[in-house]
Amino acid sequence: MQLIDLRSDTVTLPTPSMRQAMFSAEVGDDVFGEDPTIKRLEEMAARRMGKEAALFVASGTMANIISQMIHCGRGDEMILGDQAHIFWYEQGGSAALGGIHPRTVKNQWDGTLAPEDIEAAIRPDNVHFPRTRLIVLENTHNRCDGSPIGPDYMEAVADLARRFDLKIHVDGARIFNAAIALGVDPTDLTRYADSVSFCLSKGLGAPAGSLICGSNAFITQARRVRKVLGGGMRQAGVLAAAGIVALTEMVDRLADDHDNAHALAVGLSRINGISIDYERIKTNIVYFGIIQKDLSPPQLCEKLNAAGVRVLPADSRRLRAVTHYPITKLDIEAALEAVAAVMG
Length: 344
Ligand code: TLP
Known about the structure:
Order of helices and strands: EHHEHEHHEHEHEHHEEHHHEEHEEEH
Bound molecules: ligand TLP
CATH superfamily of the largest domain: Type I PLP-dependent aspartate aminotransferase-like (Major domain)
Number of helices: 14
Helix content: 40-55%
Largest sheet: 7 strands, mixed
Structural class: alpha/beta
Number of strands: 13
CATH topology of the largest domain: Aspartate Aminotransferase, domain 2
Distance between the termini: 21 Å
């Protein structure tokens, strides 16, 4: 039985042209700044995000912690959503490694933070308080139905940040999904950010790696912080080569993942016992609920797994399925049949 793995887009596989590019990649010691393939990827990433420079790092988590540690000193505060990936899934690294105090604000269902909530959370200058330094946004927003966040909202938050002299970091692990879903250039979403991170090993299909993009001065600092975290890689051009293919060949096809996710969401909405508002699904992430009280998400996951479909339990009532390369329309049809059969 062939498994249809919808647990995450991180379970993607490198394409044949990525493997070929990795095989023939020109490499050097990147800590000495001598890997030409990494340099090419970094230049390409900076251009795509409309920033001066970029840095290749091991993962989205590393990109986020480095960025936070540059924007905030120990004891400083950052404002972020209560559903943010950084808050939920990065081991509290901001506090553990950066000494940064996270101040959460409620995420709206579309992944945004209400500007008035952000403003209310900004600390006045007072000897009792930590100093607010940073606003973190996530685009697309993983736990908020993979929602893409548009340029108008980004501009509104940037105005607020400017008024209070705060920086903005965008966790753009899936920023290309956002741009494709909204029909805008990624730079329309990143021009308001001081730093943005994005991942190669999710919808873009590469085997590893993320990029941090920002000003030349920011990336110089990021290179230092990456080193102290043990992230200085050597002949990592073999990975960067796949990343270059990801950026050149895999961005436009994200629209297929979005179509597949939409088809999955609509199909799920027609299955008895499943609850989902499919109109909220704009990218590749599909959260859905179970109506029956006697069936928990882990139990449904187990049954689906036995039927050849893998999804993740998200919380006490919800599950998550994510479309990605090389999941096809036929896989989605087969997955829907399996869910319908399991739900009886
Ligand atoms: N998300 C993973 C898991 O960690 C939950 C997933 O399966 O969705 N930002 C966002 C918005 C992410 O969704 C992720 C990964 C990261 C950062 C971290 O990236 P990695 O896994 O490369 O450290």
